């Protein structure tokens, strides 16, 4: 049997996913959680093969407490569910110990397929997310430029960005000029729009 821990903060949605998985002869939902701080301990107690975690459940229980789940249960694979994503966010999630990512709008059998694929030691990325990532193209921004642009998008003033990133104000302005040039934007606001729509931030 494939042992599954199901984490979703909405009880009705969680029940629907549990019922879907329970229909399969080779899958057993051994525990459920609402993503309210007990995911890792619940997983350690029931030792699932796969933890299916809704990313909206406090950002996937902070992506299973930033790797603690994988550190304590290396045999447990993590499948994240989300309504939507961007190519950049998808890459970040896969870098944060997730073995798979699936859309909550996917057909029911795709969740079952994803769980089985993870148990076989493979990765699973929802085809719709994978196609969007391929269509978006490579991110021309450096990691530091992405940090600067995210803070700019939040309305953070240049001096505060400099303080938070331990940079000089002049360096931040240089980064913003480079970002505007690389994105082809006419202004910082335009650069934020283009980068967001392209999935680079």
Automatic annotation (TrEMBL):
Keyword Coiled coil assigned: no
InterPro entries with a match to the protein in the record: CheY-like_superfamily, Sig_transdc_resp-reg_C-effctor, Sig_transdc_resp-reg_receiver, Tscrpt_reg_LuxR_C, WalR-like
HTH luxR-type domain residues: 134-199
Keywords in alphabetical order: DNA-binding
Residue runs in coiled coils: none
Residue ranges of every copy of the Response regulatory domain listed in the record: 3-119
Pfam families found in the cross-reference section: GerE (PF00196)
CDD domains linked to this entry: LuxR_C_like
Protein name, UniProt field: Response regulator transcription factor
Protein source organism: Streptomyces violaceochromogenes
């Amino acid at each position: 049997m494939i042992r599954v821990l199901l984490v979703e903060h909405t009880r009705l949605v969680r029940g629907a996913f549990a019922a879907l998985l329970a229909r399969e002869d080779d899958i057993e939902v051994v525990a459920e959680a609402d993503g309210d701080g007990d995911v890792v301990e619940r997983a350690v107690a029931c030792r699932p093969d796969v933890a299916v975690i809704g990313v909206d459940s406090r950002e996937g229980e902070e992506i299973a407490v930033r790797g603690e789940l994988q550190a304590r249960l290396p045999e447990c694979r993590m499948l994240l569910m989300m309504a939507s994503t961007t190519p950049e966010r998808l890459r970040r999630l896969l870098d944060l110990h997730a073995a798979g990512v699936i859309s909550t709008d996917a057909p029911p059998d795709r969740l079952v397929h994803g769980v089985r694929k993870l148990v076989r030691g493979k990765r699973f990325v929802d085809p719709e997310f994978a196609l969007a990532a391929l269509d978006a193209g490579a991110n021309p921004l450096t990691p530091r430029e992405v940090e600067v642009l995210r803070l700019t998008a939040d309305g953070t003033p240049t001096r505060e960005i400099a303080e938070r990133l331990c940079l000089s104000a002049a360096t931040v302005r240089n980064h913003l000029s480079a970002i505007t040039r690389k994105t082809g934007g006419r202004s910082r606001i335009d650069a934020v729009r283009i980068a967001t729509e392209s999935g680079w931030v």
